User: What shape does this take?
Amino acid sequence: MKKIDTLLECRWIAPVQPRAAVLADHAIAIDGGRIVALLPLEQARLEFAPQARVTLPHHLVTPGFVNAHTHAAMTLLRGVGDDLPLGRWLNERIWPLEAALVSDQFVYDGTRLAALEMLRAGTTCCSDMYFYPEESARALRDVGMRAVVGIIAIEFPTAYATDAEDYLRKGLGARDMFRDDALVTFTLAPHAPYTVADSTLARIVTLAEELDLPLHMHVHETAHEVTESLTQHGVRPLARLDRLGLVSERLIAVHAVHLDDTEIALLAQRGASVAHCPSSNLKLASGVARVADLMSQGVNVVLGTDGAASNNRLDLLAEGRLAALLAKGVSGDAAAAPAAAILEAATLGAARALGLAQRIGSIEAGKDADLVAFDLSEIETQPCFDPLSHLIYACGREQVSEVWVAGVHVVRKRQVVDASGASISAAVMAPLPAWQNRARQFLNVPA
Amino acid sequence: MKKIDTLLECRWIAPVQPRAAVLADHAIAIDGGRIVALLPLEQARLEFAPQARVTLPHHLVTPGFVNAHTHAAMTLLRGVGDDLPLGRWLNERIWPLEAALVSDQFVYDGTRLAALEMLRAGTTCCSDMYFYPEESARALRDVGMRAVVGIIAIEFPTAYATDAEDYLRKGLGARDMFRDDALVTFTLAPHAPYTVADSTLARIVTLAEELDLPLHMHVHETAHEVTESLTQHGVRPLARLDRLGLVSERLIAVHAVHLDDTEIALLAQRGASVAHCPSSNLKLASGVARVADLMSQGVNVVLGTDGAASNNRLDLLAEGRLAALLAKGVSGDAAAAPAAAILEAATLGAARALGLAQRIGSIEAGKDADLVAFDLSEIETQPCFDPLSHLIYACGREQVSEVWVAGVHVVRKRQVVDASGASISAAVMAPLPAWQNRARQFLNVPA
Assistant: This one.
């Protein structure tokens, strides 16, 4: 019998690779943070002597979800400007509050809160874009989550940095700080076509190639962005990005709501990814991305929650359900974006986009053990004919019972725990009242 | 001090009437199943001597949700035909399975399951449309839920009834059975324009007036339905219904996805209601109802989950969030369908549509105590600037902590309980494996 750290005995496993597979009564053997075998339960019991054995008799186990786009720290501004038109939301709420509040501590405290919410919703890795990326990385790692952190670039000054050069220098410094943490990787994150100059984008393309980093950027979020670009640059934003060399398999085009057929073909041809954020796009009235068309053209569609100021949940399963429903409703094809495609978008597709497909995104021997167990035994998921379609159409985040990141059991019975097994919720929530009061005072909102 | 049954001491209350109000640190006094007072906490403690005092220090209390359209028993077919085009979904899955399985026992067992799911999601009342309505009423009442049951009419025979006349006779008989239960009321529920003949509809209009009942009917769900009616009747379905006298304030037009401006104006002018079922409409690729337009024209828009075969959740809060997001994304106005309007649609609006506005739908003295407490203290709802927008945009059904129906405390700490306080989940789930096996055998699907 081989000694291993952990054996998960699962009623069902959706390994993602091969797509749409569901294995009944299988086990996952974990050792040294990695998956060492995926095999029938009876066989696993004969073959392995685990230190910890976890019985998941009513559960579906999937790869950990990968949230391809968020601004994690903005959980501190959750619900601060709901039901406002986009202009008022930005000008009266988000931008003034960010100018007043954002600091290293804000990013650390807000990102820890976000990380707990994401872990409890089955997300084991997120691609973040915000100021003070070193604080975002530190917060995500502190609570046991895998981090992909954006080296943000934007032309205008903030408390964090003075100009694009300063943003890049600081972001690259953050990358150096985490070079020894295998669970932290980086993207280059030019904010958007309308906030980053050509010269900065050219520099970023060079850096991306030198350092082998993905490009994480808001692209074609609103119709306004497209028309403004036509006025200022004479071309649509994606054409400008393409001229500058950004449209490649490195690109994660976030939102990509307003695309014409030529642009979808371009993204497909170049092997770019689209990070679809359906809740945010609807809530800010940006529109609906053409997901059925993107998928049918072979574009790698992945999923993001966006920040909690425009969603207001960091719940990738909710985004997956919404993506599946919207793709059907808007395309008129009830077979569009089926459950297996959505699960792949939330896992292996995002891992591919982030350059992590060799390590995460599917349940295969050799990959890191980033795993989620969904309890399908409750009223809400009974009866169960197909655990995979149940995951997307019937489950909520409340069905997430257990989560592992690189083999570490970080969520136990819905509680995010530390190494001793104690819940860390209270510690993560402790700084919140002070931030809430500062935001309220600034907005002159009564408690 | 006045003796009362129960005092709820609430951090926040959203009484719905007046719209958008949120009361902080207020109490709800309940006696004999009714709300007897809504007043500041300190005052309530001086004024009332309750038998039971419930402390809700981190909670938002709202009126119980009213699910305006469901086929409750279809929970037994949850997820049985996902990701299929509408035609295959109906012809290969739903209709054959219904023909093979539906019986009085199927309706009772399926509706009890649905009722537990709805109660745990804050729904205290549902408007059901299915075969064997007496079994649906019995099941809903057995687990403590308020019931509005459709007297279904359809021209073709089923195990339940032979022809429209037989459906109506049996449905009216069901109504007689429950005449002494104040928590059961009825609608007349002609299935759809394409399944009910003019003569039957004329009979139903007469019955509705004689018995003072609402009309609960699928209307303009698909584009196909509209074109077929043009072919067969020379007019669109709504025009045909109007000619027959069905378009009045009694009408709850379910789905109403495909409406032109004239039809929206007609519904507004007649005071009809629309039961919007956004998940189902998207999932079956029917389209998106024009909710922002309906609301701005003054149509009473209410919310429904539809059945679990096309959703697959009986979760009115999820429908509310989706309705709010879709209305914004499709209309291009981020201020469309604000949180307060959605809460009203899920409560008082539906009560109005069902003729129950004098008894439920808002938290006011004299109304029945149908109430839900949402716990806003968890990670997912922190920080909290506005409990009402949090309810719609951040909460999930997992935040539902306590539920009362007519003053009876039916959900305690997320468990549906009997009079002794014991959970009834196991009893409700006991018949499920047998139904699941029968469905699997019929479909020739392996376990």
User: Anything to note?
Assistant: The first strand of chain B starts at residue 2 and ends at 13. Residues 104-120 of chain B form the longest helix (17 residues). The CA atoms of residues 95 and 359 of chain B lie 37 Å apart.
